[in-house]
Amino acid sequence: MIQSVRPLTAPLPAELANFAAALVEAGFAGDVASDHAARAAMATDNSVYELEPDIIVAPKSAADVEILMAVADRPAFRHLAVTARGGGTGTNGQSLNRGIIVNFQRFMTGILELNAAEGWVDVEPGLVLDELNGLIAHTGLFFAPNTSTSNRCTIGGMISTDASGKGSRVYGKTSDNALGLDVTLSGGRTIRSLEPPPAWAQSMLDDIADACDAGRQALIDNTPRISRRFTGYDLERARPAPDRLEWWRLLLGAEGTLGLVTKIRLKLTPKPAHKRLVVVAFDSFGAALAAGEPILAHAPLAIEIMDDWVQRLARDARLMDSLPLALRGHGEARISYLFIEFVGEAEDALEDLVARLIADAARLPGAIGSYCARDEADSAKLWSTRAAAVGLLGKREGARRPVAFVEDCVVPVENLVAFVDGFDAILKGHGLRYGIYGHIDVGCLHVRPALDLDDRADQATFQAISDAVYALCKRHGGIFWGEHGKGIRGAYLPDYVGPVAYAAFQRIKHAFDPLERFNPGKLVTVSRRPIGIVDLPFRQGNAVDAPGFEKAFHCNGNASCLTYSKTVPICPSFKATRDLRQSPKGRAEAVRKWRQAQEANDPDLAAIGRDTYAALDSCLGCNACGSACPAHVSVPALKSRFLAAYHTGHRRPLRDHAAVAVEAMAPMLAALRPLARRLTPMAGVMARALGLIDLPAISERGLRQLGHPVARHTEIGTVATDEKTVLVLEDAFTATFDTAAVGAVCDGLAALGYRPILVTLPPGSKAAHVKGMRKRFARLAARQIDALTELEKTGRPMIGVDPAFVLMTRAEFREVAPSVPKILLVQEFLRQRLAAGDPWPKALAAAGAPRLMVHCTEASAAPQALRQWQEVFAALGLPVRPTPTGCCGMAGLFGHEQRQQTVSRTLFDASWAPALAGEAAVLASGFSCRCQVERLSETTALHPMAAIAAGLKTG
Ligand SMILES: Cc1cc2nc3c(=O)[nH]c(=O)nc-3n(C[C@H](O)[C@H](O)[C@H](O)COP(=O)(O)OP(=O)(O)OC[C@H]3O[C@@H](n4cnc5c(N)ncnc54)[C@H](O)[C@@H]3O)c2cc1C
To answer: Is 184 helix (H, G, I), strand (E, B) or coil?
Structure first.
């Protein structure tokens, strides 16, 4: 075991409190955190390990980093390890350590200088790859290295792992696209590769030059000459000639073991004008693999392979829908794919390449057929399969789950087939199943065998497989760490590079980091013991006797919840704060730690509970995580259960009771509508006293004044129905505060020729779920499920007005009952009827094409929503502009809580406000979203059915 790993929940020692205070006193402007939730969030990455740091600092600038390292150099703090962290997407524990974690992804995320004419950009290390490419898109240039984690990995992390991905044979790895960097060392001293070295650095650089000279030839002799070359401590490129030293190249791939990188200059590449993606299907993985070499002769940008296991998962996740049926396969058909991408400036030349490839591919053994994606959206969708592959493979099979540890070997392309045979034999020898995919143009294969690392026998298997695959890879002239960096697997480094090169590495480590403080124990150690691959605690993957909390143990750190894209719903609170504690990953880890502490009767349980409560409090409850997370970790579900347990010992705030009361009283308010409306100002004053603001006004018209039949759910048996009848289900919020939307849905349905009957249901259970009043939730949900079951007996379709309500019946209600009657979203019903060929009228004229946005919960749980609305509008001849957005910042009551205003507003401004600019009116499917638009903008938001009803009326 690594020395001096503190137990998970030990109290913060006084020295760390002193360190935090000293930082502030020295002028450190960033954030310092040492609460349990922050430490739990930073204790894991996408690896199998868990190592809790002591304190997390998030610098705001390079000057902050210098202050940090100057303070850390004081004798009282000199023993603390210092480890940089970017997106935390490392697959091998790269960013895990005890001591201080320097979190760059929170604040150091800017572009410092862009020079498009010369084709370079200076960036801070915490900038995310997709963010960078988005910000420079207008120049026609891009940063070419491409990772599957491009929406969440940082440039600092990419530089430090020498990341690469699709297209690396042509564009190179990150190290081939870096031009220089600044690094801060102990004492807060910074050395800049693009400036002459300071006087203090001269003797250090002399030592480094000598070390390079001593080890360079040995490294060259022991590492293969392949396109995915060996990097990290790259003595070869750091010393290109006897009189030249490019010291900064040693840091590329050094995984933070040499210092903290604070600025990076990157080379930019012109974006190709045109792309084509050809998918060739084969009847076996062996046939697809063997096809790699002949297809390489066509000189594509990239060739990626996907085996039948990944293919089936992708097909079931509906990612392959655009492929012709014959290529998609069905049932148990075992199909493997090659994805082949061409880029170029001239379309004709590209088409020629594609035609030649397709003709040649048809003659290859085992080829079934080919498909060429020509438009950007089609190829992006197909490529998303590749990016999603790790996530798809992350789906659990019982207690075992696919784990990263031998997942990115690279061998010369000509050795691939033999290498795969050997790999297969090793895994089959252990009776393991696995999926396989990768970049075969550069000989890189991704394999994640499924293991249960809570189990000692599987831990032994882990070590045995790792050793065997390392040896196999070396035998085939390959590199064990071909893409994802080394991390804890750096333990194999001395054997791989040999004693002479490793001794040179040690001299370099000593020159940069004489006290071995930077990411200690990894890659290269001098006086410390290196961390071996089974030395660290494994992250517990399965809950023991913790019903309802299992998912907290299933988070595998894949970090797909940390995407920065403004139009992807997951995760609003993380997007607004960039604080890992306020992300699904951070919250799952906090809940897991709290459960483990409960289980262990930890003396620090109270503090852990308090920190977990704080982490969960800012969750908006949109449940985008529940659908978008590859491991399906739903934070709202965990939060609901956590709050229930937490409040057995802590008094609930009054606002929780108020939130539940609003929903419970909705039917009464609806019944007493005129009186309730008169009392609205008084209710507003009371709400403000409880910390609630801008509550919506009670609608003027009641359900019975909308001009459509209304029935209580208990009366439905007595109501006449026919084949045109559609049951429209109200929910507490729209029925009380937005009857215009309910009316619009019914008017639209009627205009299309259906007979809507508005059905009132027993009181809703959403607020009880959100606030963790589990018994109340179970009671209310059960009553609603009973009502739905009765309604289902009519045989008529049921649609819900508000997506949040409909989707709750598909997610939260399952916590109460295994099967719940299916309620359709409005557009799902319409799309079904359109497909069934119902005769719909056509709109003759339309006033403009309004933007149409869907609720963020809907965008993740029912991702076809925008497309379905678009198809419905198109069928009616009504123009509309479907507009992808993220969360609007309302999410039920969240946006009405006074204390959440900053986050709520930030989210609205980031995602919705730009889409509303200049729009007098838009269409929005969610009640919350319409409320937020009304509250924070000058735009009017209507339900999409209002446009359909109006369009057909005028038509
Ligand atoms: C699902 C999945 C798919 C992946 N696909 C790919 C892929 O296609 N290609 C690929 O190359 N990798 C891939 N990876 C691995 C990972 O995304 C890359 O290694 C990525 O470059 C890590 O970036 P990060 O910002 O998350 O860094 P982190 O994981 O936070 O850190 C990585 C290392 O960089 C160091 N570091 C970070 N910032 C600094 C800094 N400022 N100064 C000094 N050191 C620093 C850290 O100490 C750590 O050692 C994948 C990972 C996952 C989970």
So the answer is: strand
Bridge partners, 757 (sequence order): 727
Of 57, 83, 94, the residue with max ligand 1 atoms within 8 A of its CB, to mutate for a pocket test, comes to 94
Element (H, E) at 545: none
Q: Are 536 and 49 in contact (CB under 8 A)?
A: yes
Distance (angstroms) between ligand 1 centre and the Cα of 221 equals 28
Q: What are the helix (H) ranges across 339-375?
A: 347-362
Contact between 519 and 97 under an 8 Å Cβ cutoff? The reply is yes
Residue 485 Cα to ligand 1 midpoint, Å, equals: 8
How close are the terminal C-alpha atoms of the chain, in Å?
75
3-state secondary structure 853-864: ECCHHHHHHCCC
Q: Which residues pair with 344 in a beta bridge?
A: 274
| Cα 417 from Cα 285, distance rounded (Å) | 10
Whether pTM exceeds 0.70: yes
**Tokens read off for 197:** 């070295």
Backbone angles phi, psi at 56, to 5 degrees: -120, 125
Alpha carbons 249 and 258: distance in angstroms, whole number: 11
Q: List per-block mean pLDDT (blocks of 10 residues) for the chain, which spans 955 residues.
A: 36 80 97 96 97 97 98 95 97 97 98 98 98 97 95 97 94 97 98 97 98 98 92 96 97 98 98 94 93 93 90 77 77 85 94 95 94 87 74 71 92 92 95 88 92 95 97 97 96 97 98 97 95 95 89 92 87 94 97 96 94 94 88 94 95 87 77 68 69 82 90 88 94 89 96 95 91 95 95 95 94 92 97 95 82 93 93 95 93 86 92 94 95 94 95 73
Q: Find, among 662, 691, 680, the residue nearest to 766 by Cα.
A: 662
**Whether the CB of 91 sits within 6 Å of ligand 1:** yes
Instruction: Evaluate: CB of 153 within 6 angstroms of ligand 1.
Output: yes
